[in-house]
Structures are given as C-alpha cells and as structure tokens.
Amino acid sequence: MRKYNVCVVGAGMVGKKMVEVLLERNFPVNNLKILATREREEKIAGKVFKIEETKIESFKGIDIAFFAGTEGEKGASKLFGWEAVKMGCIVIDNGADFRMDERVPLVVPEVNPHHLKKHQGFIANPNCSTIQMVVVLYPLHIEFGLKRVIASTYQAVSGTGKKAVEELEKQINSYVKGEKIINEVYPYQIFGNVIPEIGSLSNEFEGYYTEEVKMIKETRKIMDLPDLKVSATCVRVPVFNGHSESLTIQFEKELDIKKVREILEKSPGIKVIDKPEKSLYPVPVFASGKDEVFVGRIRKNTCLENAIDLWVVADNIRKGAALNAIQIAEKTIEMKLI
Question: 3-state SS of the chain?
C-alpha cells in the first residue's frame, strides 16, 4: 500500500485528536508533520511531537494536509489552504471558511462520498452539529424523502475550544468553593446555565446565529437538496464533550417507526440505543470518545403528518471534526482520487 506524507495544521483540541485518530486507524502515513503558529514540543497520544511553525514552504512534499480549524475563527486554511493545493497537496479543512465555496466539496463519507469526485484539491469538513444530523437524515431520506427538518441542539463547551473547557472547570470549582463565578469565553456563565447563542448574528437569516445558519445551508449542500426546509436553534450547555440534538423530521412518504428503526440500525456510522422503558437512550458521557452517531427516543411526531422525533448524540471533537476528516482522506484514497 502506498504511504503518504501527511501534515496536521493546528495543535489544539481538534488537531491533537486528528493525530490520535490517524495513529489509531493506522492511516498509511509515511511521514507526519504537525504545524501551528509557533514551534514547540507537545505530547500527543503518548508520543512527543515537535511542532513546527506554519509557513508556505511547510507544505512542500506533503500529500495530504488536515487543517484543524477553529469554529468561529478564521482558520489557517484562509492563509495557506489554496497555496498548499498549488504545491500538489490535498487539503481537508475543518474550518468554516470554504464550506459553501462552489469549488469545494463538503463531505460526510457516510452520506455523499460521490462529491469527492469533483474536488479541486480542497475538501471541506462540515460543522460538527451538521455532521451528526446528516448521518441520520440521509438513510431515512433515501427511503421516505425528506420534506422538512427542525433541529434543537445542546452543544458541549469543547466545541468552542480548550479555553471554554477550562472556563467550565473553573466555574464549577468556584461554585464549590463559594467564590464569585467569572465568565470570559461566553457572554454569561455556562455552569448551571444554557446559552442560546453560538456564533454571531447572521446577516442572511434574520434573528439566527451563524451556527444555526451552518446547519441550514450545509445540510442542503451535502444532501443535494437546495430547497430543503431546515430550521435550527443551537444552544450551548454545561457539558464538557458531546453534542446532543432533538430532531423533528417530516417526510414525503408514509412511514412506520419499526421501519425507521430498522433502517437506522443497518446504516453505517449509526448505533441505535432506544429502549426508553429501561431509560436506555444516548447521552453525551457515553458518546464521548466513540466513533458512532448515537440515536434514540425514536417516535412518531404528534403534530405533523409523516413525521418523527428522535434524539441524536455524538462526540463533536471526534466524529464532528477529527474522525470525519480522516474518513474523508480514507475515502479519497479508496476511490483513487489522490
């Protein structure tokens, strides 16, 4: 098997997880380079890696570059992505800058690997909350035809990054010690609270925050359904890792819950946990560290015709970022597109 020269750009939570997943999955790496804003050494997956400063020339001889990206910030791909492509590198970008670019396929391997055929050297990883949703929507759409989707998300602080995780830890400690709770990352304290604001207010959809707009537009692009009716309310919750979603999904065709469950149980990347009478359903503490998208609370909606409600949980740093990016690379190799 051919081996590839690989680099990971970014050594934060997602970048480190990308390195871990590459090692765990025995990705065919010839040489692995980690790039960031400054030189240093970091211990990742039990190994000490030398981190190099990112420069244009860093991509010389690299076959695949994973850009870890950071939600809500302009990623390194804005500076180096297309330059790396010019140097013969395939870029897989976890950042948001190019997801809606017509030149760039936006890919979830369980859903739209065929989009990889039109890549121009640059492939985008969708938003974490979008990824876990479309993994569930796609097999049901094939059978019943999607009509509309209404999503409410409960998103962990790890989605904001290391500083947000540390802030939640500090606020918990402050509460236990009876000290004043200080918030810097979020507009309010996150401990003991929920905040219905992720991203900035959108100029395109009045009253929506950008995380909600991502779920709308990215879902349409990934599933080749430009007119799909999608609405989302995204909420930050005091959970360390693992995003949860409540989905109401309406279909064109009549359905029954038994068939829905059978389809989901047979679909790649999904694990069904749905025995509510035994309090068995997905929760973030069980999904954290796992590859699958977990689904439960599957039931008919009581208000809409041909509609269901269900509950979806996934590790947002793993499947929602690092793993999906590595799976894109694996699929690209499998399809002989590199």
Answer: CCCEEEEEECCCHHHHHHHHHHHHCCCCEEEEEEEECCCEEEEECCEEEEEEECCHHHHCCCCEEEECCCCCCCCCHHHHHHHHHHCCCEEEECCCCCCCCCCCCECCCCCCHHHHHHCCCEEECCCHHHHHHHHHHHHHHHHHCEEEEEEEEEECHHHCCHHHHHHHHHHHHHHHHCCCCCCCCCCCCCCCCCECCCCCECCCCCCCEHHHHHHHHHHHHHCCCCCCEEEEEEEECCCCCCEEEEEEEEECCCCCHHHHHHHHHHCCCEEECCEHHHCECCCHHHHCCCCCEEEEEEEECCCCCCEEEEEEEECCCHHHHHHHHHHHHHHHHHCCCC
- Sequence-distant (6+) residues with CB within 8 A of 6 are 22, 27, 29, 30, 31, 32, 33, 62, 63, 64, 65, 66
Retrieve residue 189's tokens: 């304290």
As to burial, measured by CB atoms within 10 angstroms (0-12 exposed, 13-18 middle, 19+ buried), residue 303 is: exposed
Query: Which of 7, 89, 119, 128 is labelled catalytic?
Result: 128
CA atoms within 13 A of residue 96's CA, in its CB half-sphere: 17
128 is catalytic: yes
The band of 72, judged by pLDDT with boundaries at 50, 70 and 90, is very low
Residue 89 known to be catalytic: no
CA-CA distances (angstroms) from residue 249 to 147, 298, 308?
A: 8, 11, 5
Domains and CATH numbers, the chain: 4-126+321-334 (3.40.50.720), 130-315 (3.30.360.10)
The model's pTM is 0.96
Query: The tokens of 186 are what?
Result: 């979020």
Identify the active-site residue in 115, 119, 141, 243.
243
Arithmetic mean of pLDDT, 103-121: 98
> Residue 143 — pLDDT band, cuts 50, 70, 90?
very high
